[in-house]
Design goal:
single chain, 162 residues, alpha/beta, six-stranded mixed β-sheet, HARBI1_dom, DDE Tnp4 domain-containing protein, metal ion binding
């Protein structure tokens, strides 16, 4: 049954080029601004997630996350303000960083095709594990040396991702 559901619906989370996304870019941006976004063009959020697995018999080092101190599989998702997942990539080996997973996927090219409109370049908001780019905006890094204004910015934007 799981395979049936997967093969019948996988296209729904493997591409951002879908009418339910394309027709709502402006609406998503307005929702984010109404919720307190400091960027007027943020339409969703990108994040990696890790799921613990049993220790594999082979290639244990590939699946081990030194940060979490567990063997893991990692996934990357794009979520929109309506709560729907627009894209899901994975699984990836546990030792991969979020930014490395972004580079392994074709998502940058897809964002360039989908998020550029004649009037606005839309973007996603991600944690500081990603790099700031045209289509991904991140908070300030190095929390200890930030000004109060920068800390407030990070706090406000992080609250949107929940």
């Amino acid at each position: 049954m799981v395979k049936f559901v997967y093969f019948r619906n996988k296209h729904r989370v493997q591409s951002l080029n879908q009418c339910w996304i394309l027709n709502r870019l402006e609406e998503f941006a307005q929702c984010c601004v109404a919720a307190g976004s400091m960027y007027p063009n943020i339409i969703g959020f990108i994040d990696g997630t890790a799921r613990a697995i049993c220790r594999p018999k082979y290639k244990q080092r590939d699946f081990y996350s030194g940060y979490k101190k567990q063997h893991m599989l990692k996934y990357q998702s794009i979520v929109f303000p309506n709560g729907l997942i627009g894209r899901l990539d994975g699984p990836f080996i546990g030792r991969r960083h979020d930014a490395a997973i972004l580079n392994l996927s074709d998502i940058r090219l897809e964002m360039a095709n989908v998020f550029s409109t004649p009037t606005t370049n839309y973007a996603l908001y991600g944690d500081p594990g990603y790099s700031n780019s045209q289509y991904i905006k991140v908070g300030y890094k190095n929390h200890h040396s930030l000004t109060e204004r920068q800390k407030l910015f990070n706090k406000t934007m992080s609250a949107l991702r929940v």
